[in-house]
Every structure is written in structure tokens, then in C-alpha cells.
Amino acid sequence: MLLLSLRSLRRQPARFAASLLATFLGATILMSFASLLDTRVAGAVDPDSAKTLVLMASVVGGWGLVIVLFAVLSTLSLLVSQRAAEMALLKSIGATPAQIGLMVVGEALAVAAVGALAAILPADLGGGLVVHLLHNTGQLAPDVTHRFGAIAICLGFGITLVAAGVAAVLAARRTTRTNARDALLVAATGQRPVPRARIISGVVFLVAGLSCGITTAVALRGGGVETMAVGAQGAIFAAIGFALLAPVLLRAVIAVLAGPLRVLPGVSGYLTERNVRGQLQKMAGAVVPIILFTGISTGTLYMQEIENSAKAMTGAVQTVADRNTETLNLVVVGMLAVFAGIMVINTLVAATTFRRREFGQQRLIGATPPQVLRMVGLEGAVLVFTGVLLGSLAATVTVFPYSVAKLGTFAPDTSIALYLAVVLAAVALTLGSSVGTARRVIRTPAVAAATTRI
Amino acid sequence: MDGPRHAPNSHPTQQAEAVRLVSVRKTYGAADNPVVALNNVTVGLPAGTFTAVMGPSGSGKSTFLHCAAGLDQPTSGRVFIDGAELTGGDETALTKFRRQRVGFVFQQFNLLPTLTALQNVALPLRLAGRRVDLRHCRAVLASVGLAERADHLPAELSGGQQQRVAIARAIAAQPRVIFADEPTGALDTTAARDVLGLLRQSVRQGGQTIVMVTHDPVAASYADAVLFLADGQLVGSLTRPTADAVAQRMARLSDEVARRHQVAVGV
Ligand SMILES: Nc1ncnc2c1ncn2[C@@H]1O[C@H](COP(=O)(O)OP(=O)(O)O)[C@@H](O)[C@H]1O
Ligand SMILES: [Mg+2]
């Protein structure tokens, strides 16, 4: 079985591209910031510098860890679910659940190891860049030099491999638990109930996020680092909660949108509604990175805005150091937002490429290429609407309480332009990657596409 | 120049031929070393008949079907469906041409997994922007014996039932011609017999025109006529075929092709 998994890796590298990209970028971010801890323990570091390094590593680690985990989990689940038919086949010819599990986990670990290995060099450079910025902003003594060592390697490989392993076990369990006939059924329809544990943990994270928000607004008024840390945590927890609840919430959204979709002229609205309802879990997989992208970008950008407003209120002029700190924050947020953005693209490209056969079938029964593209675009619109809605809600759990704590007012006096830019970026990423991929996919002649087995 | 071969009722515009291929040639690959999949095929298929196309593997059956159905453009030659010539155009124009005139039934059942049987049957009508008469669609499903299964998803149906839904879908859109490529290829004998019986019934009772590619002599015996292809050329036909006659003809054909290839290699 292990041999089988290595063989399928070698034969079909394109299938694993999305997971590989996710583990590579994820491990890069993890190891970049974990190397700050290496830098901390490497030699004589003054207490102030030490504090900066640890704070940076752990605070950024919050969002970093979350999005890396989700990226690895979601791309690997996608990979496993795309191979559900293959696994059902293996099962029907007598493979035991344990054998299939071993194969899936073996593949996932191999992908994660390759991704983490490739990430070492970029992570060394990334960590060096952060240290350079910390030097420039005077938050780190000039004599502290960047180190990349055991902690970065252990954390990077450890987290990436564990995340990949857990994702594979969960995904494989979903397919292997069901009996052979049902497995074929699930492979065909993609429908299975949302596990209760997922719903419960989603609710727990939402409540945790809300309590962070309330704590920030009520108990941490005017505070310093703690306000920022707890405040930021609110959106992180809320975003995790929404991500876990995505299938359930998407079902609610599509129930509301069903009416408007049905009155749209043509067949696209009808197909969109059927497809989203019929493949909730797959569709929710694409919503998650949009939630994270919107949540991270909106939450952290507005925290910085509020920070600036608070400075302005006290009458203090922004010093060079303040501006440098802002730059540093934006670079860090930028890295995470770019990562989340790449995951939006990654997930949608992989999911849309996989629909080659479905598009071919639709065209054989009379769908024109523009009709197929309109349907994909409409589905993308539903996904980005849901993702932006939930991501924005998650961000408010940070933004409003932080505004209350820092400015004493619920609504910060900041421009809405930043938010609109984030939404626009989410829409462009989603529609660009889904419709763009579909355009490429439907270039295959309809018969060839409809009769491929994959 | 390509008038109807004979006009049973004196109506001059009435088309007696549902499909006509004139000197159709299809090659694949590089221009200096082409693979000739269809070589100068000319044939007319009368409306309201059930035609089977047979030939050894690689003889060009699928290519014939794809060219005749407007799924692929011939390298040269002309194709008429229901009297209208298939002319070059973009995918959208071709799709619109096809959806008014042809329906398909393939070996893989090709039903959309998120739609119920009934919704699958109605989908071509929706795509074409035609009014969807659900009662008519239900009636067609009932005619293929699936009245009780109308609201089931494809995954909840057996292979034979799925293929019957695919046939109902093709029939419900009332195309001039239905093209079927190995429609029984993935079915057991009983299910295959049901499917072939349904196809024949839609010709006898509904006046449907069907062109079916198969390699199975028993399947071909359900047709009114069989066309034989070898090395991309039409090499004969058989009317009112029996399974035995078809099998004999196929055996001879395979021998001839093998001999011809041997000679070609020997030269
Ligand atoms: N897309 C293609 N590219 C190159 N050669 C092709 C292609 N499709 C079919 N052929 C070749 O054309 C010939 C006829 O193929 P096909 O029509 O599929 O035969 P059949 O359906 O009778 O088995 C074969 O020699 C086949 O290899
Ligand atoms: Mg063929």
C-alpha cells in the first residue's frame, strides 16, 4: 500500500500540486517565524530584544498557525475527496480500511515532507527579512543576528507533518468508515452529514472569539500589548469557528439565495443552486480560505488604523519609529494575507480543474461554453458572498471591541475604502481563479472531457 | 446536388434523410504522417430508422459518430443533419446547432450527480431555453419504466436504470437523431436487452432516428440496418440483421483487415 501511494505520487504529480503548494508555503511561514526563537536562544540577547523576538514569533504564530493548518487540512481533504471514487474502487476489490488509510496517510506525509524540505531555504531568507525589519525599526539590538536552527526545523516539520497526517486520517476515515456501496454513493454525490464534533467545536471557537471581543471592550480599555493580543485573538477564533461551521452556514446562505437565483434568466441560477446544495462540503472547502483571507486582512488592517487614530487622538505625532512599526505590521499581515489569497486560488483552481468531466457532460447535452462559464461565475459569486460575509463578521469581533478599547467608540472613524479593497480583492481572486480555470478546462473537446474517467 | 434519394410523399421540402455524410475524411496527427480515421465516407441514413455501425476496434466507429453528430469537424467533406449543413463555427454556434437536432447516449451514463432523474431529463430543455413540461418528462421516464424513480439521484440507481434515464433524457428533447456510442457497453445482459428494446421502441413507435455504434452482434441485431467500417472506410451493410449474420460478417472482416495489414507490412 505504501508502494502504491508513492507510485501514485510519482505518476500524477499535478494532482498533488495544490497540497504541495499549501504545505510548502505554510512551512515557509511557520519556519520563518519559528527561526526568531532560534535567534533568541542562539546567544547573548538583551532582554528587550528577547521580548520582541518571542512576542513576534508567538503573536504572528497565531494567525500563521491557523491558516497553515487550514490550508493543509483543506487541500488534503480536497485531494482525498477527489480520489474518493478511486478509494471506493479499491474497497470494492477488497482493500481493507486500514490498507486504504495507510495509503492516504503515506501520500499525505510524503507530500508534507517534500513541501517542508523545499521550504527550508525560503524560510531562512524570510526569517532574515523579519530580523532585518526589526533592526530597522529599532526593536532589535543591531548585534543580534538571525539564526535558523533546530527550533525552526522541528516546529516547521512537526506542525506540517502532524497537520497533514491528521487531515489524511480524518479524510480517510470518512471514506473508509462507510461500506463499499455507500462509499461509491458518497463519491458520486459528495453528500455526507456534517459531523457533530465539527459543529460543536465550531460553536466553541465562536464563543471563545466573542468572549475575547467582550473582554477587550470591557476589561482591557486603553491597555497596551495585552489589548492588542487578546483583541486580535477574537477574530482568529471567530474565523476558525466560521470555517468549521462553513458547510452549515453555506446551506443557510443558499437557502436564502435560492429565490433570487431561480428568477435569474437562463439555466445558470438553477444549476448553481442545485450544485451548491448537492455538494455542500466541497463548496464549503472553497469558502474557508475566503473567510480567512477576509478575516485576516480586514481585522489586522483596521487594528492598525485604530492604532493610528488612537495616536492621533492623544495629539502625539507619528514618529519614525511608529511608522516603521506600522510598516513591519503591514509586511507581516501582508505575508499572511498573500498566503491566504494564494490558498483561495489554489483551492478553486484544484476544485474547478476536477470538474472537467462534469463540464463535458453539460456541453454534450446542450450547454454552450458561455452557459457553463456563467454557472461557474454564479457559483463563485455565492462562495465569495458567503466567505466575505463570514470573514467580515469574524473581523468585527476584533475591530469593534478594539475600537471601544482604544477610541472609546464603537464605530472607528476610519475610511471604508480599505474594507472595500479587501472585498474587491476577494471577489477578483475567487472569480478570476474559478472562471479562469473553467475557461481553460472547457477547451477540451466535450466528448473527450465527458468520457474521461478521472 | 444532394437531394433526397427518394421522396415517399411528394412534399419537396420533406427530408427523407436524417443524416448525410458526403466524402467525409478525418485525419489525426501531423500533416506529413497522418492517421486516417475516416477515409472518404459517403452515406445517407433515412429518417425513422435504427442504424448500427460496426467494425473492428480502431476502424473509426467513434470518429464516424462524432463527425456525424457535429461533435467533431471532419478534415474534409460535408455533413448534413436533418437537411441542414454543419458548417464551421465556434463551439457556441455548434452547440446551438446540435441541441436542436441531436441527442446523445454514451457508454458512461453521463448523468449530472446533483440532479434527480427527472431533473436530468429536463435539463437539455432548460439549457435550450425551452419551456419545461415536467408532465411530459415524467411520462417519458415512465415509458422507460422509471416512473417510481423520478426523484432519485443517479447514485441511487443501478447502471441499467441510469442508462434508461439517459435514454429518456435524449428522447424527451425530441431531437431529429439520437447518437449512441456503445450504450450497452457497461451493462449486464438483461439490462442491455432492456436498453436496446427501448431504443428500438422509440424508433418503431415514436418515429425516432437512431445511430448506434457497437461491437456486439446481439446489440446490432436490434437495428434495422448495420453498416460495417474497416480502416476508416465503409465496407458493406446488412439489412434486417440477425446476430449470427452480423457475427459471421464481423469475423470475415477481421480476417480481411488482418490480412491487409500483413500484406502492408510485408511490402
Ligand atoms: N484524438 C485522436 N488522436 C489521434 N488518433 C486518433 C484520435 N482518435 C482516434 N484516433 C485514431 O483513429 C482511428 C479510429 O479511432 P476510433 O474512431 O476511436 O475507432 P473505434 O471507435 O472504431 O475503435 C484509430 O486508429 C485511432 O487510433
Ligand atoms: Mg470507439
Automatic annotation (TrEMBL), chain A:
Pfam families: FtsX. Keywords: Cell membrane, Membrane, Transmembrane, Transmembrane helix. It is a multi-pass membrane protein. This is ABC transport system permease protein. Its main location: membrane. Residues 64-179, 331-445 form the ABC3 transporter permease C-terminal domain. InterPro entries: ABC3_permease_C (IPR003838), Macrolide_Exporter_MacB (IPR050250). Coiled coil: none annotated. The chain crosses the membrane at residues 53-79, 100-121, 148-172, 199-220, 235-263, 284-303, 330-354, 375-404, 416-435. GO terms for molecular function: transmembrane transporter activity. The keyword Nucleotide-binding does not apply. One of its GO terms (cellular component) is plasma membrane. It comes from Goodfellowiella coeruleoviolacea.
TrEMBL record, chain B:
It holds the Pfam family ABC_tran. InterPro entries: AAA+_ATPase, ABC_transporter-like_ATP-bd, ABC_transporter-like_CS, ABC_transpr_LolD-like, MacB-like_ATP-bd, P-loop_NTPase. The keyword ATP-binding applies. SUPFAM superfamilies: P-loop containing nucleoside triphosphate hydrolases. PROSITE patterns: ABC_TRANSPORTER_1, ABC_TRANSPORTER_2. Gene3D superfamilies: P-loop containing nucleotide triphosphate hydrolases. This is ABC transport system ATP-binding protein.
